[in-house]
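Recap quiz, item 2
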Amino acid sequence: MDEPSLKPGDRDFVGALASGLEVLQVFGVEHPRMTLSEVAARTNMDRAKARRFVLTLHALGYVKRVGRQFELSPRVLGPGYAYQASNQYRAVIEQYLEEITAELGESSSLAVLDGNDVVYVVRSPARLRLMAITLSVGTRLPAGYTSMGRVLLGQLREQELDGFLESVELKAFTPYSIMTKESLKKEILKVRSQGFAIVDEELDAGLRSVAVPIYTGSNVLLGALNISTNAARVDMQVLMSVYLPRLQEVVGKVKLIAQ
Amino acid sequence: MDEPSLKPGDRDFVGALASGLEVLQVFGVEHPRMTLSEVAARTNMDRAKARRFVLTLHALGYVKRVGRQFELSPRVLGPGYAYQASNQYRAVIEQYLEEITAELGESSSLAVLDGNDVVYVVRSPARLRLMAITLSVGTRLPAGYTSMGRVLLGQLREQELDGFLESVELKAFTPYSIMTKESLKKEILKVRSQGFAIVDEELDAGLRSVAVPIYTGSNVLLGALNISTNAARVDMQVLMSVYLPRLQEVVGKVKLIAQ
DNA sequence: GCACAATTGTTCGAAATACGAACATTTGTG
DNA sequence: CACAAATGTTCGTATTTCGAACAATTGTGC
């Protein structure tokens, strides 16, 4: 775990950059378009300050203006594109995931750990399912309650895992959600030793998934692979005897890729 | 066209935000990982300044630290995710594009205009082609030399189009590339009147594509749809008689979506 | 079309911040 | 181990960012 050497208020912490990124982050699904006053209200900034940041983001091309409203511009895809393009395994993993989806008819994903969340970085959605998983690249979910998160947490050093457990927020997403830190730690250690995670209706009703860690041939962790299913349709036995081996097959293939 | 009301040096332009975003942008395929000194050199900033920005981005979670090196963190996917999630047509268009790919075996995309570039926002890559188009969501290409760009430029008002033509950089990507502003304008106006664009080996050898504009039922431009092909494999007649109608079909379906 | 509320734009004094130079410390390499 | 390169730290100060207050514009309801 990579601790910041700076915090807000430190002399070398650039407050204006933090404020500007805070303004950028306020645009999203719930508030795709906003006036200056709305941005100021949402960020709790003085109006003149918010105005400066919005207009600067606009001048730099990160937001567009439509009358009095501002919205994100496609330029904000840039850093994410750079992030994805910097990892040469992404494209080949995406193809393997699509093969899984074509074969099993299930959604399959790669995610990485970021703070206490998993972030989806590759997605192959199942198209034939009415009961669909509505997730995209960039989606963040609480690591402790997802199969991929459990797998990734299981790869952490003891100290890092303890750091996670210290700061994790436990939440009863469903009646099955783990509600003590002790049980969560125990589950993560179990996942670590068995080499895969199954999470069953802990984050959302009906959501059942299996995940494994995926490494390069030189043992660099690339993330976690999963297959997400509907608990009403796929029983545990299929998950273990068909889906898990299929994931492990991809893991094996990726390990053989020359660098 | 949405002109900035601020420019660098203006009193209300937040220089520190611009510098911080400049630092963020320096990370990419060519330089995925960098030390502080490397960031300072690439941005041409004083070392102490670059250090402040890198360490602030790190503290905010946008970059990770590995020893002495910094790299983008998955958190940079956030603004792009917000941008994509803010548009409710994206998911359904993605499905239509995948159907096209499944049916015709070609890559198909949706792009929008940003400055003088098109930015790819939805992608359905053809998996069976060895001669593949290697593009991702977030990829930017010069609008004037791409079928989708031509289509989008054709939707601009006269003044906006003239603004584009004034600032466009003409470049001989291939022997077929348009090299005068007059020819380019003529081509864009032709695209506008015929309702589609075909670009043939103007950006890259072998790259042939057809594109159409796509609107909502209430006449809001969503972007341009295309199918990209290999000129060695797909002749003009197929492009016109099979591929173009297929795109127009999707356009018709999207127009019918209730808001 | 008008009145008025809400929003946005502008100015400017000054507090705060960001800057870079110079020195100190640490790390990597041959 | 020596030394070069890189990073960390400090601090005076120039510059930038801040917000309050006033001005102008826009949107809305009648």
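Residues 87-255 of chain B form a domain with the Beta-Lactamase fold (CATH 3.30.450.40).
The mean pLDDT of chain B is 93.
End of item.
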